[in-house]
Amino acid sequence: MYPPRNVSVSVIQSGQIWEGDSVTLICSSDSNPPAEISWFKENQISSVGSGQSFSALQSGRFYCEAHNQHGSQRSDAVTVTVKGRLVMLYISIGVVCGAAVIITVLLI
Q1: pTM of the model
Q2: Which of the residues 18, 32, 54, 108 has the least number of beta carbons within 10 Å of its own beta carbon?
Q3: Residue ranges per domain, the chain?
Q4: Topology of the domain comprising 2-107
Q5: Per-residue pLDDT for 17 more than 70?
């Protein structure tokens, strides 16, 4: 019987994360008995989740803490950066057969 050790976070997604998407973080540890997992966002007092995996919806630095009756250990923090969606608006005004035509194209 021993406390959690080798606690680490892995990110299950590569590439850019856009607003509205989520990224899954997995916490792993070695302990006996198995550890309970809590998730935290740096600079916040209360936990933001529990369980082996956590889906981050916003930017920040996140870490997990593994604990059992023999002790606890926290992982290093990982940085999640969520990028805002790019919105481009094109407006075109023209005349077709004597009538004004406005064309609006919204790209998200």
Answers
A1: 0.72
A2: 108
A3: 2-107
A4: Immunoglobulin-like (2.60.40)
A5: yes
